[in-house]
Each structure stands twice: as structure tokens, then as C-alpha cells.
Task: structure prediction
Amino acid sequence: MSEHAVGKRQFGHRARLALTPALSFKADGQAHAARTMWNLLHAWWQMMPTDKRTLANADAAIRQARKDIDFLDALPAQAAQAVLKAYFQAWKNCWEGRAGAPGFKARFRSVMSVDVPQGRDLGIVRVHRRWGMVNLPKIGRVRFRWTKDLPVGKRADPDNRITGARLVKDALGWHIAFRVQNLEPKPGPRRGPEVGIDVGIAVPLALSDGETFEHGEWLTTREQAKLLRLEQRSAALRQHRERGEKASKRLRHIYDQIARLRAKSKRRRHDWQHKTTTTLARTYGTVVVEALQITNMVKSAKGALDQPGMNVAQKSGLNRSIHAEAWGRMVVMLGYKLARLGGSLVKVPAPGTSLRCSACGLTTPGSRESQAVFVCKNPDCGWSGNADHNAARNVLHLYRMGLALIPAAGRAVVRRARRVQPATAR
Result:
């Protein structure tokens, strides 16, 4: 294969770790040490003069901290260096307008994670059809779930290899996210069918060619009943707790069970989204979606004291449903998967797509009879069909009319995030 026809691609692969209680305790210690290292760096940054905030001075500071604070020694030296690089990168992202200013990481509101920056330290081997072994610094040899072929052993080379990993803990336990680099052909422009997509709540994805992608409840009936029972028990226990009082062991155990059920629901949602977007990227060459302002769509209807809102409970339920569908993440997945296969993702203006008739192009009041039924009230048209299918056809028509949205050049780099003052923070 010619050199100009290939390119290096970085991607991640996440797998479940099988840690014993003793090994899980070691991983927790490393994660807490990494979080403490970040907070010490943040305090050092705020204390030091501007001209002293250099990478060399910060490196000397964390080396001294590892000598003075005993429990920081649980964190491997390379993982401590990764924390240092991540902190400086966070400030760089802030100054360039890609993120807000880094801050203090609280114990119960931050993700527990540890970086393993060197891929050669992992020593990955496959021991079974479903399990592999990985070496974690200062933890030992650990089994992980083998769900994807990794470039290890004889399959690894300078262009196809694992460059590092990251340990992440959620409500379901510890996982390892491998950073994989491989060499693959650069995709050329791919000719394929064009399709418009309308996103919704009752029908998650409706396509302009009449196809729909739907899913059921993320939790089974039994799991939903258990979640409701746990939420009711936690509410009852909170009534007997004074404000500021530490939660009891029983209440913390209920919180853990609720978190595990919600994490299971989130994982199933991610799995459905990945499979659906992969199917769409492989089937179509051009995918057209609406440029939705999701932040504005999920604003509360509570109002103010002098002007209270209406239908607040109904709007809250709608907001939860919109958040649960995660339309923004769906578009992101579609974007990078289409680009990887040579396709393209296009956004068009959203206003009016659900109310306009896709046959005559006119917006006539009363045409949207219900959530699923659209009947054009134009006397010269009278087209009827599924409302979501009609909206998807309008989305595709806007693209074919040349109304695709083009972002302003350089805006993502120039614009600063809100509440960030780089001049005073540097």
C-alpha cells in the first residue's frame, strides 16, 4: 500500500477489569493520590507568581510533594507526570477558548482515574477467548474482559500498537481504556445515498427514506421497579437526617445501588447509539441533521416569583427525556464515523421542519394533527403521512436546496469560554 494512501488513527477501547477487593483498594488509593496531586498543583499554581509557573518548577514541586506526603507514593511516578501534563494542558485549553479554567477536584464529585502513559508497561497477553491479562504499575497482573482484538504480541508493530491506557472507575467498578494507534487507509470521498434524519422522543430516529430506528426501555421492568423502590427508600431516610449531617451507612449503600442501575442504563444507551450510528455511517454517504440548540430546548419553565411558569412538571419530564436521548452525542458519533468512512455529516436550520409540508413546501396551520400524523391543510396539496418522516424529508430538502450551515471560520479558536479571564489567570 502506498504511503500517501494510509494514515495513523488513534482510538480508545474500554474493557472491564476483574479486580479482587485488595487490588481494588490499591487502585482506589492511586486514584485518590492522583486527585490530591491535581489539587496540590492547582494550589501551587495560584500561589506562584506568573513568571514562576513553568513546567520545570511544577515538576520539582510534585517531586518534593511525593517525598513529604507518604500516601502520594502509592501513585506511580509516570502517572504523577501524566497528572502534571494534564493540568498544564487544561490551562492551555482554557487560554485557547476550548474549555473553562481548571479547578479543585472534590472527593465525591470527580471521576476516579489513573493514567498509565507507557504502553510498554502494560504487558498485555490473551489467556482465554474472553479474558486477557494486563500489568498495572504498583497493582500487579489483572484480568480484563477481552471484547476486541488488540495489537499485542506478534500483531504489534511501530504503526499498530497500544500507546497507553487509563484506569477509570464508575458505579459498576473499575475499567481500563486502552489508547490504540493503528495504520489504516485514508478514505476518499464516498458516493452513497443521501438521507435526512429527524430526532425525537417517541421515535428516536426517523429517516427521510421511511426507515426508523427505535429502542425500548433501557432498564427492564424488574430493574425499573427496583430503582423506584430504592429511590423511595432513600427519600424516606433523608427525611430523618438533619441538614449537613453525614449520610448513614444504609443510605450510602442505597445510593450505590441507585448509581449502579443508572450506570447500567447509560451503558445500554451508549451501546445502542454506537451500533445505530455505525449502521448509518456504513449505509449512507451523506447524512443531514438539524442544527438543534439543545441547551435552549431543555431550559426550565419554572419562571420567576412575579411571573411563574406554566406546565412546569410536564416541561421537566420533557427535559429529562431529551437528556436521556443524548442527541448531541449521537451527532458527534455520526460525524467521526462518517469521516472515517469517507462520508459527510451536514447540519441544516431546524426551525419549521416539523410544521412544513414536504410535498408542497408550505406551512399551513393545523397540519400537524398529532405526534405521529401529518395532514397538509393546503387545499391544493392534501398530502398525509407520518409526521417524523415528513420532518426528515424536509431536512434532506433543505440540504439539497443549498441551505447547509457553515460555521464561521476560526470562531472555535478565537471565542473564549464564559467566566474565563485568561489575562488574570496566566
About this structure: The longest helix spans residues 249-283.
